[in-house]
Amino acid sequence: MCGITGRIRSGNAVDDLLSGLENLEYRGYDSAGLAVQNGHGIDVLKREGEADVLRRLVEEREPTGPIGIGHTRWSTHGPPSDANAHPHTGTTDRVAVVHNGIIENYESLREELRDRGHEFTSDTDTEVVPHLVEAFLDEGCEPFDAFMQAVDRLEGSYALAAIVEGTDAIFATRNGSPLVVGLADDGFFLASDVPAFIEFTDRVIYLENEDVAVLRPDSYGIFDRSSTPVKRPVDTVEWSSEDAQKSGFDHYMLKEIHEQPASLNQTIHGRFDPEAGSIEFEDFAPGEFSDISRVEFVACGTSYHAALYGCHLLGQRGIPAYAHRAGEYASNPRPVDEETLVIGVTQSGETADTLESLRRLDDTPARTLALTNVIGSTAARETDDVLYIRAGPEIGVAATKTFSSQVTALALLAERLHRDITGEPSEHSAELLDSLSALPDQIESILDADPTAELTRKYEGMDAHFFIGRGIAHPVALEGALKFKEITYEHAEGFAAGQLKHGPLALVTPNTVVIAVFTGDHDEKTLNNVREVQARGASVIAIAPADADEIAATVDDFVGIPASTPALNGLLANVQLQLLSYHVANRLERSIDKPRNLAKSVTVE
Questions:
Q1: Is 2 an annotated catalytic residue?
Q2: d(CA 164, CA 141)
Q3: Which of 99, 275, 364, 508 is the most exposed, having the fewest neighbouring CB atoms within 10 Å of its CB?
Q4: Which is catalytic among the residues 255, 401, 483, 600?
Q5: Can you tell me the distance from the alpha carbon of 9 to that of 185, in angstroms, rounded to the nearest whole number?
Q6: Average pLDDT by stretches of 10, the chain with 605 residues
């Protein structure tokens, strides 16, 4: 969940490293630091707080050097502090290391190193790594060998980058946490994610687990753990540095909400023809899924809500489907057979719990598929198949456009599975494809009107916000509540509408606002639940098709959406919920793009 950056080329590394850290703050922002080779040693500067705090220290100290590494931290071991910030060094400051992940055996390594005279100054698991490298250097190892032997002692998940005094190189490796190498015309970059260096190059190498990269001023090499050179493909990133900027919006989240029409056009482009009624995925031949009899989803957070949505879409087509929270599935996987398709839904392709769930299936006959946004991600490489959502870069911690693209891709996949299994389109096929064609323009019309902004003051000071829905509206309600709590820090919960009377109704008071989602299916039953909460004094905001007159006449505030098929009305309602959460958080002056205690990619379990 932390962010790593590295840079080796001519000129001063500091500006490039600071730029990379600022571009990676969505991965962690408890503290930040950098280390550069200055020609006579290693300068390490680090501070608790966001990257701009580090920038002020850099402007004061003015470090220089052509080789450097940097880090922005999301705390796991030890609270945010200057001492716990990365990079960490050994006893003699000859080695500097940055780390993402968890070293599981750090306590035993620390005791061993203490017995050998090493002194530790932080609470982190990371600090054992530079001390290990230093210990092997003291035994006479060359820097590359010292790094390799240190890594061999580590247990856990990690991405590591290190520099060694007097050595013109960056040493890096990964095991469970992402690392990508950038190939520029005049040098090389290293990072947890492409936005760190996209302004310098779009040519990248995604390192695989247990790869070791050595970057030098005029060359690079990639090795396995036995020090044997290996080749990895060079990919071209299909988006530019401008795509990862705010482009005039106050926040990345608002920009990404407004990018949904474009991202959905990318998701569906070339994948179906509504006039011919055909569905074509570039990597799946006709009949590819004809032997599938059920689908299991594994996912976390927003991706889990997209998976729940996908379950409804598949169920409507008679295909048994079940969604599991990946952390629980990894601990207690379900029985599978050769007719089971397990879909890991993960925006980043690096979500630790989801990857662990998928890996539990390696020795089973089940087929696995990654639904992800990131080309070259671990999930994309480790599953049998991959379906890219093509949403473009998403920087805001609270996922918005990726949820819409995940659900849209799953809508197409559900219809494709039905066709492969039964040999014919579903009864919903023509309606779905026509509605998908109209979806980007319908979302654009919501964004142009943005009616939720005026509601924020009316419901200021409420004790609780409950989001309810039935059928497809249920995962939308869960997602709406998640967005609300993520960025407003206000109490919010999502419920299946019919479950209110089985406990949650006890929480409803006149200081509760209920946000009810209607899609055109089961609306009368949900309206009955609305009347139940109104009888307890709660206010109700309805998100529903614009022509739902009875709903509009019943609730306190009505927010309309363009009329679509019930299967996609949930996506349209979700955009209104995103805007509602954004406007409330903005009024409360919350840190919208970097909500407290959260990070974009959860790469540790």
A1: yes
A2: 12
A3: 275
A4: 600
A5: 10
A6: 88 92 77 90 90 88 93 77 90 94 93 93 92 96 97 94 96 93 96 91 94 96 96 87 78 95 95 90 92 97 98 97 94 93 95 94 96 92 96 92 98 97 95 96 95 88 95 98 97 94 92 97 95 96 97 97 96 98 96 84 61
